[in-house]
Specification:
The structure is a single chain. The protein contains nine helices and no strands. By secondary structure, it is mainly α. The longest helix has 25 residues, at about 1-25. Helix 6 runs parallel beside helix 8. The radius of gyration is 21 Å and the shape is globular.
Length: about 210
């Protein structure tokens, strides 16, 4: 009985050890450092804004409205959106006029993003601005900035993103809501990709 007990204890210790080393091996130190640097760069350029205490809330989720707003602010088109040029109604839950009573705070960005083909709503005609953006939705929005809005969703857009490293160290998971950290890293990578390189990639993919 004692021998059996000793064997069981040794086995349990070995199992715990290998479990620990497995988790430790899965820790992506390079990816963590990369994401921290990406967020720092975006913040220094005022592309992303933290909370009152300066924290970016890296592990928090980001909504669909926040996602399209972030994209518009990161690119030149964003300057036009704040002028209220886009009052085209696209969705039943988003008013046409951003100044209308009860309008969502991101109305102009959502409607403009739709006008440019960057973002789409759901089959029921809604946009669901306050729903968490899924990883593949975030990737699709960013890839659409470069002109190809006709790739197969979601895998066509994921393939395009991977082709030029837009998903490098982003840490997102297909089918899961994206964290602010993941979205900021995707955007950071996308800003580093030139239009010419992406155009060549799009031609190859067609």
């Amino acid at each position: 009985m004692k021998k059996s007990l000793r064997v069981l204890i040794v086995f349990s210790v070995m199992l715990a050890f290998f479990s620990f080393t497995s988790v430790h091996a899965d820790y992506d130190a390079e990816g963590v450092e990369y994401r921290i640097n990406a967020m720092s760069r975006l913040k220094s350029e005022s592309i992303v804004v933290g909370y009152a205490d300066g924290d970016l809330g890296a592990k928090k989720l980001i909504t669909r409205a926040e996602m399209i707003t972030l994209i518009c602010r990161a690119y030149a088109e964003g300057n036009r959106l704040t002028e209220g040029l886009y009052y085209v109604p696209f969705y039943s839950d988003i008013p046409a006029d951003s100044k209308a009573t009860g309008a969502h705070w991101a109305t102009s960005f959502i409607n403009a993003g739709s006008e440019f083909g960057i973002v789409n709503g759901y089959p029921d005609g809604t946009f669901r601005p306050d729903a968490p953006v899924l990883y593949e939705e975030a990737v699709k929005m960013i890839v659409c900035l470069y002109g190809d809005t006709n790739a197969a969703y979601p895998h066509g857009f994921l393939r395009l993103a991977s082709g030029y490293g837009i998903d490098k160290h982003a840490g997102g998971t297909f089918g899961e809501p994206a964290t602010r950290e993941t979205v900021f890293t995707l955007l950071y990578n996308a800003l580093a990709v030139s239009d010419d390189k992406l155009e060549i990639l799009l031609e190859d993919m067609r």
